[in-house]
Design a protein that fits this description.
With about 80 residues, the chain is α+β, with helices and mostly antiparallel strands. It is about 40% helix and about 25% strand. The strands form 2 sheets. Strands 1-5-4 form a 3-stranded mixed beta sheet, with no helix packed on it. A two-stranded antiparallel sheet has the order 2-3. The radius of gyration is 17 Å and the shape is flat. It starts with a strand and ends with a helix. The mean pLDDT is about 95.
Length: about 80
């Protein structure tokens, strides 16, 4: 069953692309469609950068120990 990733994770939530544009991912071993993803536009990048800048305001005040703890939590989730 092909996978579908048509949204982006921006600002803590899944959002639809501003300008929908899909791309079929092909499995090189079988040359069959493996899935569909959304291609981002400049407007999607701008939205992500705006969210990242907003998040950086508070994140930049964290200590190295707090940042390490956050990265370890992310790693554990993977």
């Amino acid at each position: 069953m092909p996978y579908e990733y048509r949204q982006f994770y921006i600002d803590g939530r899944w959002v639809d692309p501003i300008k929908p544009r899909e791309f079929q991912v092909i499995n090189p071993a079988t040359e069959e469609m493996a899935g569909v993803i959304s291609m981002g536009s400049a407007a999607d990048v701008d939205r992500a950068v705006t969210a990242a800048r907003r998040a950086f305001e508070s994140f930049s005040h964290t200590t190295p120990q707090e940042r390490r703890a956050l990265l370890e939590k992310i790693l554990a989730g993977l």
